[in-house]
Specification:
This protein has 423 residues and is of the alpha/beta class. The chain contains 13 helices and 17 strands. It binds nicotinamide-adenine-dinucleotide.
Length: 423
């Protein structure tokens, strides 16, 4: 086994370029274990741009390909693929890579339906390869600390988690594909992060009641260059308006296995005052965390109004320790707040994902977010969609056994995963 795992970037769009900065962060750390040797995009122009950026950031230019089969044939010692294509293509691209014997890191959502997730999990099992879902939010030290606070009993027994995200109006968010049913509309593509954070804080979910809606029948081009500024170039060719096909808001009441409840609103058609809030109530107090990848300290509040939002918060989380690379990049293994520009923070967390993938390949250990874990995130995300259509609460088992798949069946037919005749 060579010292550095040779990998290819598959997908050279906005997130692919952010991953590249994560690779540069890993290269500059004391734990570099990966080597970028190729990049692949069905469009040559972004692949060439990516390769040029890689030369600047990593010191060597990866080989450029426009199809996976040629890449695998021409680089026989390629070991892994980092898949950052549109969400609706994850199941096809990840399965192609796994069948070619490559270990795969794939962006979230694992796939845009449970059947798509199953295809990826089965392909990884058959190939004996690692499948890691790149769920980055939970790797933010602020979320690591929040989970330890809850596990260590800082707020007593958890009873209720409120997660609210409202905004977006009628604007196109980054790319038109983020508003289409079969490529993951925003409550799926972005909402899956929150599903993962909720499960990370509260444990597995048991049952969900709720519904989803398609509020905005037309969306228009805005002016935002997206997170980190990586989507600005798309504005020039983006249509002025699009007709979305995927639901743009979900509203859910969740019961977790531990008996606690969750109220989840992920509304990407919100007008007026935007609202983003995440708070967990327990038998002794509450824990509030403020966004993602911004380093803002979380806040513990106890009866009588006593609030802890400084370094003393660590006293309530004795078990909290960051993994060594996180400690190196964030400056300590018990970080409770940090300040850095968004792109720097983003890159640190993406470096951690790459490092974990390399270690999984080297040692055979399981990734933190396996295909099954990513599938459970997808299940929680679609549960309100399906509950609304069935007019009843749906369980995790309903989701995994495909008893609740009215909305997803439409996706699977559009993607060719299911034939209309088999429905
Ligand atoms: N974790 C996060 O914070 C985060 C943030 C943004 C995006 N993402 C995820 O990253 C993925 C990509 O999003 P994006 O914003 O980069 O999209 P994008 O549209 O900017 O880029 C996707 C790229 O994939 C390429 N592509 C499509 N099919 C391909 C194939 N078969 N082979 C090779 N290349 C192919 C496209 O040509 C395009 O260049 C999505 O799954 C998205 O959910 C994650």
């Amino acid at each position: 086994m060579p010292e550095h795992i040779k990998y290819a970037a598959v997908g050279c769009g906005g997130m692919g370029r952010r991953h590249l900065r994560g690779a540069a962060m890993l290269y500059g750390s004391s734990r570099r274990n990966m080597e970028l040797v190729a990049c692949c995009d069905i469009k040559r122009e972004p692949a060439e741009l990516y390769a040029d950026e890689a030369k600047d950031l990593l010191g060597s230019r990866p080989r450029v390909f426009t199809d996976i089969a040629t890449m695998v044939r021409e680089i026989p010692d390629l070991q892994a693929a980092d898949v950052t294509v549109e969400s609706g293509f994850h199941h096809v691209v990840a399965v192609t890579c796994l069948q070619a014997g490559l270990h795969v890191q794939c962006e979230k959502p694992a796939a845009v339906s449970i059947r798509g997730c199953n295809m990826m999990i089965d392909a990884a099992r058959r190939a004996g390869c690692t499948l890691s879902i790149a769920e980055n939010y939970r790797r933010d030290p602020i979320h690591r600390l929040a989970r330890a606070l809850i596990a260590d009993g800082a707020i007593g027994t958890p009873r209720l988690m409120l997660s609210t995200s409202i905004g977006g109006r009628d604007l196109i968010a980054m790319t038109p594909w983020r508003h289409m049913q079969e490529t993951a509309s925003m409550p799926v593509d972005a909402g899956v992060h929150e599903a993962d954070v909720m499960r990370f804080y509260m444990g597995e979910f048991r049952v969900v009641f709720g519904a989803s809606r398609l509020h905005e029948k037309t969306r228009r081009k805005g002016t935002s260059a997206g997170p980190g500024g990586f989507y600005g170039a798309y504005l020039a060719t983006m249509p002025d308006t699009i007709i979305p096909t995927g639901d743009d808001a979900l509203y859910a009441l969740i019961q977790f296995e531990n008996g606690a409840f969750g109220q989840w609103i992920d509304d990407h058609a919100g007008h007026g005052e935007p609202k983003h809030e995440r708070i967990v109530y327990g038998s002794k107090g509450s824990l509030q965390s403020f966004g993602n990848r911004n380093g803002k300290p979380s806040k513990l509040t106890f009866d009588g109004g006593t609030a802890i939002e400084d370094e003393r918060i660590l006293d309530y989380a004795p078990s909290y320790r960051l993994e060594p690379l996180a400690a190196e990049l964030f400056g300590g293994d018990r970080v409770w707040s940090y300040t850095a520009p968004f792109n720097e923070i983003d890159s640190r967390i993406l470096a951690m994902e790459y490092y974990e993938l390399g270690e999984c390949i080297r040692t055979g250990q399981k990734p933190e977010v396996t295909g099954e874990e990513g599938r459970a995130d997808v299940a929680l995300t679609y549960a309100p969609f399906e509950a609304g259509r069935l007019g009843r609460p749906v369980t995790l088992d309903d989701m995994l056994s495909l008893r609740a798949d009215v909305y997803q069946r439409e996706i699977d037919i559009k993607l060719g995963i299911l034939q209309p005749a088999s429905v």
